[in-house]
Amino acid sequence: MRWLHAILLILLALPAAAEGPLRPGLAQVDLARSSIQAEGRDRGRPRPLELRLGLSRPVPYRVYFLDGPPRLVVDFQEVDFADQDSGAMPGRDLVPALRWGRFRRGWSRMVMELPGPYALRLALQTPARDGAQGALLSLRIEPVEQQGFVTRGTALSALWDLPEPVLEGDPALPRDAGDERLRVAIDPGHGGQDPGAQVGAISEAALMLGFAAELAEELSRAGFAVTVTRDDDRFIPLEQRMTIARTAGADLFISLHADALPAGGAAGLSLYTWNQQANDRATRELALRHDRDDLVSGLDLRGADSQVVDVLMDLARTETQPRSEAFAKFVVLELRRAGIGMHRDPMRGAAFSVLKSPDIPSVLIELGFLTDAGDRANLFDPDWRVGTAQAITRAIGGWAQDDAARAAVSRK
């Protein structure tokens, strides 16, 4: 493991955006001087847009685009959005979504979802006009063809808020004396302002919170140490979920979901491991649904060469990826033994954000699809939930023994 820790140290040493604690006297947003404006008549096609943001003082900022869905991201140093409602921005109805908030020490973020691909034509921060105090940030963007849509994002997003790693022999996350229990992180998907999939009054976030509690209880009874990324209905950014797992010293990460696809699109339990090349229609739709509501969290801004980082991340995954896939196989085996119905192709790959971690074996379990009547019935059936939780627990035990045996052989 020494080489993996060394790789993580290299990643953390790459150039980073300036950061620090928020200082008193943060810049405030003035909605009276802020707006989103569109140029020309609405003919059902994307139009040039101008974003104007009134600030109480000039601040450092950076601008870039992300895709899936297309969105404009603006990061500010030392701006306080706490008392402002993004829905009150004049012109808010011109874009599909607008969100803002604090996302990291010393930095705040605004994300504007776009009706299509755009390019930045003007970015200018000037003193406020007409005798007003402060500054005015003006961003003009224009529609472009997909090939002209330049986005930013690297594999570094998987390391957002990563605690400082240590070399082997230095206990960064000490266990109690004699505590050799396997540590499992359970991640109930969505939460808070992000309810996930919804069918009538049923929300994915609430269902997964309940099942996570039942699974955690089964795991604790079986002797595992358990961390749950959320134990109530609150929003936790995707990357922070992995941070919680790392801080707990997790040996395994399990994300729980029960999504929705068009009728007949999917049914049955399935397991996903990381695969950046996965590109079938259902997987693309699920990836969009899983990551769409995490706009405020966004991606890491560290100024590193993405190709170098990708290579290092792939190298780190040469150990964890086979272990993730091995665990998924154990789960499928135990579910079949328990007679739990699964998708016809239960083991799949996907580029879900919570599976990016290079240092913790990770799987995402779709317990079913709320758009399928049979899956909905299962998710509300106490016997099905208990049987599924017990099968996953047995799978963890079997995988842990197999994983330890393989590690012992590799050390020889």
Automatic annotation (TrEMBL):
Name the EC number(s).
Answer: 3.5.1.28
Instruction: Please give the superkingdom of this protein's source.
Output: Bacteria
Q: Could you list the residue ranges that cross the membrane? A: none
Which reaction equations make up its catalytic activity? Hydrolyzes the link between N-acetylmuramoyl residues and L-amino acid residues in certain cell-wall glycopeptides
Q: Which residues form the signal peptide?
A: 1-18
What terms describe the molecular function in GO for this protein? N-acetylmuramoyl-L-alanine amidase activity
Q: What is an example of a Pfam family matching this protein? A: AMIN
Q: Which residues form the MurNAc-LAA domain?
A: 242-397
By its UniProt entry, which CDD domains does this protein fall under? MurNAc-LAA
Q: Name one GO cellular component term.
A: outer membrane-bounded periplasmic space
The GO annotation for biological process reads: peptidoglycan catabolic process
Keywords recorded for this protein, A-Z: Hydrolase, Signal
Q: What is this protein called?
A: N-acetylmuramoyl-L-alanine amidase
Q: Which organism is it from?
A: Paracoccus halophilus
